[in-house]
Design goal:
Elements: E1 6-8, H1 16-21, H2 23-32, E2 34-38, E3 43-45, E4 53-59, E5 62-67, E6 73-79, E7 84-85, H3 87-92, E8 99-102, E9 106-112, H4 113-122, H5 124-149, H6 153-168, E10 169-172, E11 175-178, H7 184-191, H8 195-208, E12 211-214, E13 217-220, H9 223-229
Antiparallel strand pairs: 1-2, 2-9, 3-8, 4-7, 4-9, 5-6, 5-8, 10-11, 11-13, 12-13
Helix pairs in contact: 2-4, 4-5, 6-7, 6-9, 7-8
Length: 231
């Protein structure tokens, strides 16, 4: 049974998407939305599910992942407060292409597909904001593919760790603690490398004194060394 609760949206939130579409469109979005909370580990949506809703994250982060027919798990993205998720299915009405799971407690604004499309139709600035967001995500994904293509497994893992440090790192006692609980399998999917090669790369980095690891946790001791591995 789901542990989330639903109520009319109230209060302030981190609205990256809504800030980009302007006051009028943002007000229309909020007026049609409800607020919903998810516990850590709870799925907002599952791959293959018949789509019904769009989510705007107000607090907490989620991971976007998919699995192959052979059962390999791939981490596709991590979304943070202000990000919109589930928007593609609202546009094409096709089944969900990925699973979205809360990495921590999440509070989100939830909009039914018909309401979301109505906001886009009535407020062209919202539609343009959505197009800009999708364009930025596509450019980012393309740039990452190009960068990773030229690296060894060690370079790919180093690249991903640097990205995690920048986006989800906290400075603690002269090191950077990556405060995002990821498994080695998820890191391998993000790096586009095999689980075995990622495990070897992490072991090598530990031996060199670049990182420390624990279950679903990485502490980066030498970001400069990671940067050199991606040069």
């Amino acid at each position: 049974m789901s542990t989330h609760s639903t109520a009319r949206a109230v209060g302030s939130e981190a609205d990256g998407f809504l800030e980009a579409v302007g006051t009028e469109a943002a007000s229309a979005f909020r007026a049609r939305a409800t607020s919903r909370r998810y516990a850590r580990g709870e799925a907002l949506m599952h791959a293959g599910q018949v789509p019904r809703e769009v989510f705007l994250l107000r607090s907490g982060r989620v991971k976007v992942s998919a699995s192959t027919a052979a059962g390999r798990h791939f981490l596709l993205a991590v979304r943070a407060p202000g990000d919109l998720v589930g928007e593609l299915s609202a546009l094409d009405e096709l089944p969900r292409s990925a699973t979205i799971e809360a990495l921590e407690a999440v509070d989100a604004l939830v909009l039914q597909h018909a309401d979301f499309r109505a906001v886009l139709a009535q407020h062209p600035e919202a539609a343009m904001g959505l197009l800009r967001m999708l364009s930025a995500r596509l450019r980012d994904a393309d740039a990452k593919r190009i960068q990773l293509a030229g690296y060894t497994a060690l370079g790919r893992v180093a690249f991903c760790l640097l990205e995690l440090c920048e986006r989800f790192g906290e400075q603690r006692e002269g090191a950077v603690e990556i405060v995002l609980p990821l498994s080695q399998e998820e890191l391998a999917g993000w790096a586009g490398a095999s689980l075995e090669s990622v495990a070897r790369a992490l072991a090598q980095m530990r031996e060199l004194g670049w990182i420390e690891t624990r279950r679903r946790g990485i502490r980066v001791l030498d970001t400069a060394a990671l940067a050199r591995a991606t040069a």
